[in-house]
Amino acid sequence: MSPAVQEAGSAPRTGLRVLVTHPGASLYGSDRMLLEAVRGMVDVGWSPLLLVPETGALTDAVAEWGVPVRTGPVPVLRKSALTPTGILRLGAQTLAAARQGWDLLVQGRPDVVYVSTVTTPLWPLLARVRGVPVVCHVHEAESEAPGVLQRALVLPLLAADALVVNSRFALDVLLRSAPRLRDRSAVVLNGVEGPPAAAPPRLGGGPVRLLYVGRLSERKGVLVALEALELLVAEGLDAHLDLVGGVFSEHAAFGEELRRRVARPQLAGRTTFHGFQDDVWPHLAACDILLVPSVLAEPFGNTAVEGVLAGRPVVASDVGGLPEALEGYRSARLVRPLDASALAAAIGGAVDQLPTLLELAREDAVAAAARHDPQRYRRAVTARVASVARGGSAA
To answer: What is the pLDDT of residues 131-161, one digit of tens each?
Structure first.
């Protein structure tokens, strides 16, 4: 089967026992997609069991549907693991996780294991040894990562029976390292829930409201956005940037750098930190333009899609899966990554054309709602999982 965008399949089998593994319990991009996948399993009458390293907003959400949650060591392959200390820590976590994982496979007798993200390489291997079918959902596209890390992420996928990949870009990156996975892969575009109701554009007055949503990290381009804001203010534009998102605990130093940066005289009073917000729609409704200034390749770009769904113009980096996420939307603009001048110019141009762009954004929102319908996403993922489950039909 050639990789193609997977549409909603036929009605899946009912009653499947699914062991679902995920590396965290936040509610950012891949976390929200895990939530949609689990919701789809519940909708068709399956019995998922979620294994995560800790509790959090994600586990609170699935608990409302009666989904049992187990916590325990979930070894996650990150760049920090490529140091001597990191390797030792990862090895200890892997041994502990293997013991618990084997017990879950033996006692829970799942019909299939659904592995969310490629950063937990233990699970495809463990399930294969136990003889349980595995579906791995690829949310990553580490095209700039060291070769050793790319291979470490991809090799365990050879043990998977089927893959779900969130974009054509992510699939291309995957196949560079493992061409043999082509016939096992299907692209399923992320399902993104829109706002409860369409929010009309602001009536004007005060500064232009710019918005950034996502983790506050260097790779997400937050510093580039701040530099662009400085340039715009220097050119006489009255603008304000709202930052919605938190900093990884291990990136505390970057958070401190951001605080120092926004305290500079050029930016004093022109930025607001809102921290992580489960509900981003009020912030999108209050903004004029959404910025997605990623420096490194994004596998897709849920935040960009949320901006379109909210009926707001989006200015994003022309990198990774972001062009794919914004494909066909006339209210969106793409700029060179890591180029604050280009970002500032695109924002300035959008401000000049704002009434026209807002009208186009209203039309784009309708198209995005159809393209990223969460129900279609849930059906596609459950159909993919059912196709390889014990007793299911072949993929």
So the answer is: 999 999 999 887 665 666 677 778 889 999 9
d(CA 203, CA 276): 27
Q: Where are the domains of the chain?
A: 17-191+373-387, 208-371
Q: 17-191+373-387 domain in CATH 3.40.50.2000?
A: yes
Pairing of strands 239-244, 289-292: unpaired
Nearest alpha-carbon partner for 20 in 57, 56, 46: 46
Q: Which of these, 75, 73, 78, 37, lies nearest to 58 by C-alpha position?
A: 37
Q: What is the pLDDT of residues 167-209, one digit of tens each?
A: 999 999 999 889 999 999 999 999 999 999 888 988 778 899 9
Domain 17-191+373-387 matches domain 208-371 at the CATH topology level: yes
Q: Please check whether the domain covering 208-371 is classified as CATH 3.90.550.10.
A: no
Describe the strand order of the beta sheet including 289-292 as a list of residue ranges: 271-275, 239-244, 208-213, 289-292, 314-317, 332-335
User: Tens of pLDDT along 320-372?
Assistant: 999 999 999 999 999 999 999 999 999 999 999 999 999 999 999 999 999 99
